[in-house]
């Protein structure tokens, strides 16, 4: 089954965003700062990722319906 260019572009964009967020999380873990601050930054990053995934899901649902 072949994917359209839009599907491939969307998949690439999602992969890049997720990769960037994972990279940012790793950078936070390796940064020289307190554990409490690092945990807060990871929690904030996870919240941002959750919001992004929710928005993306809503956009997909809108296009499918």
Write the layout of secondary structure elements.
Layout: H1 5-30, H2 35-64
Task: Summarize this structure briefly.
This protein is mainly alpha-helical.
Question: Can you describe what's shown?
Answer:
The protein has 65 residues and is mainly alpha-helical. It has a domain at 34-65. 86% of the residues lie in helices and 0% in strands. The protein is built from two helices and no strands. The longest helix has 30 residues, at 35-64.
Number of strands: 0
Ends: how far apart? Answer: 21 Å
Strand content: under 5%
Shape: elongated
Count up the helices. Answer: 2
Mean pLDDT: 81
Order of helices and strands: HH
Helix content: over 70%
Biggest sheet features: none
Stretches with pLDDT under 50, minimum 5 residues: none
Rg is 15 Å
Derived structural class: mainly alpha
Could you list some keywords that capture this structure?
single chain; 65 residues; mainly alpha
